[in-house]
Amino acid sequence: MSIRSTEGRGQRYDSILDTIGNTPCIRINRIAPDHVTVYVKAEAFNPAASVKDRLALNIIEAAERDGRLAPGQTVVEATSGNTGIGLAMVCAAKGYPLVVTMAESFSIERRRLMRFLGARVVLTPKEEKGLGMYRKAKELAETHGWFLASQFETADNADIHEHTTGPEIIADFAGERLDYWVTGYGTGGTVTGVARALRRERPETRIVLTEPANAAIVSSGVGQERDGMGAPALSHPAFEPHPIQGWTPDFIPLVLQESLDNGFYDELIPVAGPDGMAWARRLAAEEGIFTGVSGGSTFAVAMQVAERAEPGSVILAMLPDTGERYLSTPLFENIAEGMNDEEEALSRSTPGYQIG
């Protein structure tokens, strides 16, 4: 048997930002049904470990190109974490100060990562939900003259997925079947941008959208109240707090609205948070693929699709980030710091047993 060799993606890069994108599609070998082939697109391979690196880069560079962002101007954004982490990386590399607003209910490691990357993090009360952190970001931008990244409304969000994520998928499955593409939504940028590309070049691929079962605001059929700029005016009445961090704020983002208005998905399947956690754990323990609750939830729906799909079908699920964003969340609640009984018995089984 020959030893594996590696070619890598190149020897040198001018900036960490040049490594964003070109994430791999990885086959599921042990836990997928035998009659289908399942892949995951692992966005944790981005340098700040999530799909949001893509939109963070495009929001900043598009604003630089058209003059909306001045040199040295402070950037501000509301985020559940991954967009903030991506923006912190981009702003650090380009020299912009960053202020992030985030509801206090999101995981502690996310705010610490943003601060580690040089950002300031302003926490908002959990009772105010996503709309509260959104309004705080707008207030800060208006008060201080900062650049508001506007991930929930800006065209720069979906555009980067139309021009990178979508073409990557199309190239990876060129000349081969791709029967289903499964994704959740936060801002809606991934589904809207990739759907534009798939509808144009792979119209036979069915797009499956998913959202939390207890915050199924798209499934409710109730529209989103907006102000004159397209921003949410009120929390959506169908929203309830849910454990899938990064998914489904308490409003329908304007970026997602394009997918709803244009029929950019063929099926909408809600998923329960505990199911997403269970599949994230299985992906880690049985496939060696490390993802968070959002990735596990997308994969849970992909497994539902796989069970009923025709033999030979090919399914691709998006995994938005890494499981390390969830160490302080229920995803890891049964993972102990110390040894369990089995581990302690293994330690005692050899003559060199010691314990501090």
Question: What keywords describe this structure?
Answer:
10 helices, 4-stranded parallel beta sheet, globular, single chain, Rossmann fold, 2 domains, 356 residues, 10 strands
Structure description:
The model has no long low-confidence stretch (mean pLDDT 94). The protein is globular. The protein folds into 2 domains: 16-50 and 162-332, 3-Layer(aba) Sandwich (Rossmann fold), CATH 3.40.50.1100; 52-148, Rossmann fold (3-Layer(aba) Sandwich). The protein starts with 24 loop residues before the first strand and ends in an 8-residue tail after the last helix. Strand 8 (206-212), helix 7 and strand 9 (267-271) form a beta-alpha-beta unit. It has helices at 52-66, 82-94, 108-116, 129-144, 155-172, 189-201, 254-262, 273-287, 293-308, 341-348; strands at residues 25-27, 37-42, 75-78, 98-103, 120-124, 147-148, 180-183, 206-212, 267-271, 314-319. The chain is of the alpha/beta class and 356 residues long.
